Amino acid sequence: MKKLRIRIVEFVEKAEGKWKSLATKQQRSFTKIFFTAYTMLTILTVIHLWSKGSESRAILSVGHINNIPKEIKMRYQPPENSVSSSTHKTSP
């Protein structure tokens, strides 16, 4: 875990060094390009989900489970001498 953390820190420092070595104009243009790509991807995703959502109106119906099916067997069985059925008297 420690080696992984060290590698991540080294990678981030190396990437920061490369970023800072770029000219300010290049940094601004890269930032604009990444922001534009992110915005376009977000807009396309929202449009896709909106168009898919209007096509399918099926709503999943979820109800209360009344009982456990007989095929399912419980693995845990409570001990015979449980706390509630203890024969020891407790003081109030």
Low-confidence stretches: none
Give the overall form.
Answer: flat
Question: How many β-strands, per DSSP?
Answer: 0
Largest sheet: none
Q: What's the multimeric state?
A: single chain
Rg (CA only)? 31 Å
- Helix count equals 2
Mean pLDDT: 82
Along the chain, the helix and strand elements come as HH
Helix content: 55-70%
Bin the strand percentage: under 5%
Distance between the termini: 53 Å
Q: Which structural class matches the secondary elements? A: mainly alpha
Task: Give keywords.
flat, mainly alpha, 57% helix, 2 helices, 92 residues
Task: Describe this protein's structure.
This protein is an all-alpha fold and 92 residues long. It has helices spanning 2-21, 24-55. The radius of gyration is 31 Å and the shape is flat. The chain crosses the membrane at residues 30-50.
Topology, please?
Elements lengths: L1 H20 L2 H32 L37
Short recap of the structure:
The chain is mostly helical and 92 residues long. 57% of the residues lie in helices and 0% in strands.
